[in-house]
Amino acid sequence: MAKARASRHDLDSYTIKAINTTINIGDCVLMRPAESSKPSYVASVEKIEAGARGNVTVHVRWYNRPEETTGGQRKFHGSTELFLSDHYDIQSADTIEGKCIVHSFKSYMKLDAVGTDDFICRFEYSFSTGAFTPDRVAVYCNCEMPYNPDDLMVQCEGCSDCLDSAYERQLLAICCPSTLSRKKDEIYKRGNTFELFELSIWVFYKIV
Q: What keyword terms does UniProt attach to this protein (predicted)?
């Protein structure tokens, strides 16, 4: 009579000796890519399973980088931006290279320093349809584009609107175009040429 095959069983955690790291369910991990020239894959561990012969597999949910999606890289995508995919997979636990942290937008912006294992996720991505959830996010800049977490955001001293680094590069880091125009109009109405001169000096002083 043939012996019954030992069944696979679930694990709460697993220690990968090669990297001396314990992986738990719910951890985000870096996984070895098929091509060494490419960056590590990022995934969330959904399940850890041990086989009869001691081999351990992980059930993962993949994260995609912008360049891996249908729409590709957009202006507001940060260098550490990831999208939580609906693509699930089973991989050998030995392909895990280490742990990482995938932050929400709010927690990412509170970081004092961004490490090589820090990522940000604002969207979920449908692997089959190419659709994103949510399909829109809040905009903070006058350019009406979502905020790129890599860029410096400054605030206009006149109206408190936020401006991204594109405006800053145009030497408008302290006044948005609408506020600067409004200030000039107010001074023209008062007919005070000296005050207009002072405004010009103030703008010059701020940008240098």
A: Metal-binding, Zinc, Zinc-finger
- Domains, the chain, in order of start with CATH, read 1-137 (2.30.30.490), 139-208 (3.30.40)
- Quick count: other Cβ atoms within 10 Å of Cβ 3? 5
**What does the block give as tokens for 83?**
């999208």
List b or e across 154-188, with b for residues whose CB sees 16 or more CB atoms inside 10 angstroms.
Answer: bebeeeebbbbeebbeeebbbbbeebbeebeeebe
Residue 189 tokens read as 């109405």
Find all residues with CB under 8 Å of 103, minimum gap 6, and list them.
Answer: 111, 118, 119, 120, 121
Has this prediction a pTM greater than 0.85?
no
Residue 74 pLDDT class (50, 70, 90 cuts): confident
Instruction: State the SS3 of 82-142.
Output: EEEEEEEEEEEHHHEEEEEEEECHHHHHCCCCCCCCEEEEEEEECCCCCCEECCCCCECEC
Q: Tens of pLDDT along 32-49?
A: 998 989 999 999 999 999
Q: What angle do CA 166, 167, 172 make, to 5 degrees?
A: 150
